[in-house]
Design a protein that fits this description.
The structure is a single chain. By secondary structure, this protein is an alpha/beta fold. The protein contains 6 helices and 13 strands. It has a 9-stranded mixed β-sheet, with helices on both faces. Strands 2-3 form a two-stranded antiparallel sheet. The protein has a two-stranded antiparallel sheet with strand order 7-10. The two termini are about 15 Å apart. The model has no long low-confidence stretch (mean pLDDT about 95).
Protein backbone atom coordinates (compact mmCIF):
# COMPACT_ATOMS: atom_id res chain seq x y z
CA UNK A 1 0.00 0.00 0.00
CA UNK A 2 1.35 3.40 -1.01
CA UNK A 3 1.99 5.72 1.91
CA UNK A 4 -0.31 8.74 1.82
CA UNK A 5 1.15 12.19 2.51
CA UNK A 6 0.23 13.79 5.82
CA UNK A 7 -1.14 17.32 5.46
CA UNK A 8 -1.08 19.41 8.62
CA UNK A 9 -3.93 21.90 9.00
CA UNK A 10 -3.52 24.75 11.46
CA UNK A 11 -6.33 24.91 14.00
CA UNK A 12 -7.94 27.50 16.20
CA UNK A 13 -9.82 27.79 19.49
CA UNK A 14 -13.58 27.99 19.91
CA UNK A 15 -15.44 28.70 23.14
CA UNK A 16 -18.58 26.75 24.05
CA UNK A 17 -21.58 29.08 23.97
CA UNK A 18 -23.78 26.77 26.00
CA UNK A 19 -24.00 23.22 27.31
CA UNK A 20 -22.58 22.17 30.65
CA UNK A 21 -19.27 24.01 30.16
CA UNK A 22 -20.05 27.49 28.80
CA UNK A 23 -16.85 29.33 27.92
CA UNK A 24 -14.86 26.08 27.69
CA UNK A 25 -12.09 26.35 25.08
CA UNK A 26 -11.80 23.66 22.41
CA UNK A 27 -9.23 23.19 19.65
CA UNK A 28 -10.85 22.68 16.25
CA UNK A 29 -10.69 22.83 12.45
CA UNK A 30 -13.77 23.03 10.23
CA UNK A 31 -14.51 19.56 8.88
CA UNK A 32 -14.46 20.68 5.23
CA UNK A 33 -10.67 21.01 5.44
CA UNK A 34 -10.45 17.41 6.64
CA UNK A 35 -12.72 16.17 3.86
CA UNK A 36 -10.88 18.15 1.19
CA UNK A 37 -7.55 16.53 2.11
CA UNK A 38 -8.82 13.01 2.80
CA UNK A 39 -10.90 12.91 -0.40
CA UNK A 40 -7.92 13.81 -2.58
CA UNK A 41 -5.48 11.18 -1.34
CA UNK A 42 -3.93 12.77 1.72
CA UNK A 43 -4.21 12.25 5.46
CA UNK A 44 -5.45 15.32 7.34
CA UNK A 45 -3.81 16.12 10.67
CA UNK A 46 -5.07 18.99 12.83
CA UNK A 47 -2.30 21.20 14.25
CA UNK A 48 -3.66 22.95 17.36
CA UNK A 49 -2.24 26.34 18.26
CA UNK A 50 0.88 25.53 20.26
CA UNK A 51 4.05 27.26 21.47
CA UNK A 52 6.04 28.63 18.53
CA UNK A 53 9.14 26.70 19.57
CA UNK A 54 7.33 23.41 18.77
CA UNK A 55 6.67 24.37 15.13
CA UNK A 56 9.82 22.87 13.60
CA UNK A 57 9.26 19.49 15.22
CA UNK A 58 5.62 19.57 14.09
CA UNK A 59 6.59 20.38 10.50
CA UNK A 60 9.11 17.52 10.58
CA UNK A 61 6.11 15.21 11.08
CA UNK A 62 4.05 16.39 8.07
CA UNK A 63 4.43 16.48 4.28
CA UNK A 64 2.38 19.60 3.59
CA UNK A 65 0.89 22.57 5.44
CA UNK A 66 -2.52 24.24 5.16
CA UNK A 67 -3.01 27.50 7.06
CA UNK A 68 -6.74 27.71 7.68
CA UNK A 69 -9.18 30.59 8.08
CA UNK A 70 -10.24 32.26 11.30
CA UNK A 71 -9.56 35.40 13.30
CA UNK A 72 -8.11 38.65 11.98
CA UNK A 73 -4.34 38.86 11.79
CA UNK A 74 -3.08 41.25 14.45
CA UNK A 75 -2.26 44.64 12.86
CA UNK A 76 0.77 44.92 15.14
CA UNK A 77 2.39 42.32 12.84
CA UNK A 78 2.43 44.85 9.99
CA UNK A 79 3.15 47.96 12.03
CA UNK A 80 -0.36 49.34 12.63
CA UNK A 81 -2.54 50.03 15.65
CA UNK A 82 -5.92 48.30 15.85
CA UNK A 83 -8.60 50.36 14.10
CA UNK A 84 -12.33 50.54 14.90
CA UNK A 85 -13.45 47.83 12.47
CA UNK A 86 -10.73 45.28 13.10
CA UNK A 87 -12.21 42.02 14.35
CA UNK A 88 -11.06 39.63 17.06
CA UNK A 89 -7.36 38.77 16.98
CA UNK A 90 -5.42 35.75 18.28
CA UNK A 91 -1.74 36.81 18.64
CA UNK A 92 -0.60 33.39 19.91
CA UNK A 93 -1.97 31.79 16.75
CA UNK A 94 -0.23 34.38 14.58
CA UNK A 95 3.08 33.62 16.25
CA UNK A 96 2.62 29.87 15.94
CA UNK A 97 1.65 30.06 12.26
CA UNK A 98 4.59 32.33 11.46
CA UNK A 99 6.82 29.66 13.00
CA UNK A 100 5.05 26.90 11.04
CA UNK A 101 5.64 28.88 7.84
CA UNK A 102 9.32 29.40 8.59
CA UNK A 103 9.81 25.68 9.19
CA UNK A 104 7.73 24.69 6.14
CA UNK A 105 9.74 26.98 3.87
CA UNK A 106 12.98 25.58 5.23
CA UNK A 107 11.75 22.02 4.57
CA UNK A 108 10.30 23.11 1.17
CA UNK A 109 7.02 21.28 1.67
CA UNK A 110 3.80 22.39 -0.08
CA UNK A 111 2.04 25.32 1.61
CA UNK A 112 -1.57 26.41 1.05
CA UNK A 113 -2.95 29.48 2.84
CA UNK A 114 -6.73 29.91 2.83
CA UNK A 115 -8.43 33.23 3.71
CA UNK A 116 -6.75 34.19 7.02
CA UNK A 117 -4.02 31.71 6.05
CA UNK A 118 -3.28 33.69 2.89
CA UNK A 119 -3.20 36.89 4.91
CA UNK A 120 -0.78 35.27 7.38
CA UNK A 121 1.55 34.38 4.50
CA UNK A 122 1.36 37.90 3.11
CA UNK A 123 2.08 39.54 6.47
CA UNK A 124 4.82 37.03 7.33
CA UNK A 125 6.57 37.91 4.06
CA UNK A 126 6.33 41.66 4.81
CA UNK A 127 3.00 42.65 3.27
CA UNK A 128 0.08 44.47 4.90
CA UNK A 129 -3.72 44.32 5.11
CA UNK A 130 -6.72 46.60 5.09
CA UNK A 131 -8.19 46.05 8.55
CA UNK A 132 -11.67 46.34 7.01
CA UNK A 133 -13.07 46.63 3.49
CA UNK A 134 -14.41 50.10 4.31
CA UNK A 135 -10.84 51.43 4.69
CA UNK A 136 -10.18 50.82 0.99
CA UNK A 137 -10.81 53.95 -1.11
CA UNK A 138 -11.65 52.20 -4.39
CA UNK A 139 -15.05 50.76 -5.31
CA UNK A 140 -15.18 47.30 -3.75
CA UNK A 141 -17.47 44.33 -4.34
CA UNK A 142 -19.18 42.44 -1.52
CA UNK A 143 -16.47 40.15 -0.17
CA UNK A 144 -18.42 38.73 2.76
CA UNK A 145 -21.27 36.97 1.03
CA UNK A 146 -24.76 36.43 2.46
CA UNK A 147 -25.21 33.11 0.65
CA UNK A 148 -24.19 29.70 2.00
CA UNK A 149 -20.53 28.63 1.90
CA UNK A 150 -20.87 26.34 -1.13
CA UNK A 151 -22.35 29.09 -3.36
CA UNK A 152 -19.86 30.96 -5.59
CA UNK A 153 -20.59 34.71 -5.67
CA UNK A 154 -17.81 36.57 -7.48
CA UNK A 155 -15.34 35.98 -10.27
CA UNK A 156 -11.57 36.04 -10.05
CA UNK A 157 -9.23 36.51 -12.99
CA UNK A 158 -6.24 34.16 -12.95
CA UNK A 159 -2.81 34.91 -14.42
CA UNK A 160 -2.16 32.66 -17.40
CA UNK A 161 1.28 31.33 -16.46
CA UNK A 162 0.52 30.78 -12.76
CA UNK A 163 0.33 27.64 -10.66
CA UNK A 164 -3.34 28.36 -9.96
CA UNK A 165 -4.05 28.60 -13.68
CA UNK A 166 -2.30 25.30 -14.33
CA UNK A 167 -4.35 23.71 -11.55
CA UNK A 168 -7.77 25.04 -12.53
CA UNK A 169 -6.96 25.27 -16.28
CA UNK A 170 -9.07 28.39 -16.64
CA UNK A 171 -8.35 32.10 -16.89
CA UNK A 172 -11.23 32.90 -14.53
CA UNK A 173 -13.42 31.13 -11.99
CA UNK A 174 -16.34 32.07 -9.76
CA UNK A 175 -15.57 31.53 -6.06
CA UNK A 176 -17.08 32.12 -2.62
CA UNK A 177 -16.02 34.97 -0.34
CA UNK A 178 -16.02 35.36 3.45
CA UNK A 179 -13.54 38.06 4.46
CA UNK A 180 -13.86 41.60 5.77
CA UNK A 181 -10.11 42.26 5.62
CA UNK A 182 -8.21 42.57 2.33
CA UNK A 183 -4.63 42.21 1.19
CA UNK A 184 -3.20 45.73 0.89
CA UNK A 185 0.48 45.53 -0.08
CA UNK A 186 2.16 42.37 -1.37
CA UNK A 187 5.92 41.82 -0.93
CA UNK A 188 8.20 41.27 -3.93
CA UNK A 189 8.71 37.62 -2.94
CA UNK A 190 5.07 36.82 -3.80
CA UNK A 191 3.49 37.01 -7.26
CA UNK A 192 -0.16 38.15 -7.47
CA UNK A 193 -1.95 35.58 -9.64
CA UNK A 194 -5.64 36.15 -8.94
CA UNK A 195 -7.73 39.33 -8.63
CA UNK A 196 -11.38 40.34 -8.67
CA UNK A 197 -12.82 42.96 -11.04
CA UNK A 198 -12.43 45.56 -8.28
CA UNK A 199 -8.68 44.89 -8.07
CA UNK A 200 -8.71 43.00 -4.75
CA UNK A 201 -5.96 40.36 -4.45
CA UNK A 202 -7.53 36.88 -4.33
CA UNK A 203 -4.48 34.67 -4.97
CA UNK A 204 -0.70 34.80 -4.88
CA UNK A 205 2.15 32.32 -5.01
CA UNK A 206 5.90 31.91 -4.77
CA UNK A 207 7.31 30.38 -7.95
CA UNK A 208 10.49 29.35 -6.14
CA UNK A 209 8.54 26.48 -4.59
CA UNK A 210 6.79 23.57 -6.29
CA UNK A 211 3.58 24.42 -4.44
CA UNK A 212 3.24 27.63 -2.44
CA UNK A 213 -0.18 29.23 -2.83
CA UNK A 214 -2.38 31.68 -0.94
CA UNK A 215 -6.06 32.10 -1.81
CA UNK A 216 -8.49 34.56 -0.26
CA UNK A 217 -11.54 32.39 -1.04
CA UNK A 218 -12.47 29.04 0.57
CA UNK A 219 -11.92 26.11 -1.82
CA UNK A 220 -12.58 23.60 0.97
CA UNK A 221 -16.18 24.86 1.18
CA UNK A 222 -16.63 24.40 -2.59
CA UNK A 223 -15.53 20.77 -2.93
CA UNK A 224 -19.12 19.54 -3.40
CA UNK A 225 -20.25 22.33 -5.72
CA UNK A 226 -17.24 23.44 -7.80
CA UNK A 227 -15.07 20.67 -9.27
CA UNK A 228 -12.04 22.90 -9.76
CA UNK A 229 -11.86 23.45 -5.98
CA UNK A 230 -10.91 19.80 -5.52
CA UNK A 231 -8.06 20.24 -7.98
CA UNK A 232 -6.33 22.66 -5.60
CA UNK A 233 -6.11 19.97 -2.92
CA UNK A 234 -5.28 17.24 -5.43
CA UNK A 235 -2.28 19.19 -6.70
CA UNK A 236 -1.13 19.95 -3.16
CA UNK A 237 -1.34 16.30 -2.12
CA UNK A 238 0.54 15.24 -5.27
CA UNK A 239 3.28 17.77 -4.51
CA UNK A 240 3.55 16.41 -0.95
CA UNK A 241 4.31 12.83 -2.07
Amino acid sequence: MTKKPIIGISGSIIKDQGGIFPGYRRAYVNNDYIRAVNNTGGIALILPTSPAETAKQIIDAVDGLILSGGQDVSPFNYGEEIQQKCGAIFPERDEFEFALLEAAEEKKIPVLGICRGAQIINVYRGGSLYQDISYRDEHTLRHFQLQGPSVPTHKIKITGSSLLNRIIQKDSVIVNSFHHQLVKSVPASLQITGTTSDGVVEAFEDSNFEFFLGVQFHPEMLIDSVESANKVFQRMVEAAK
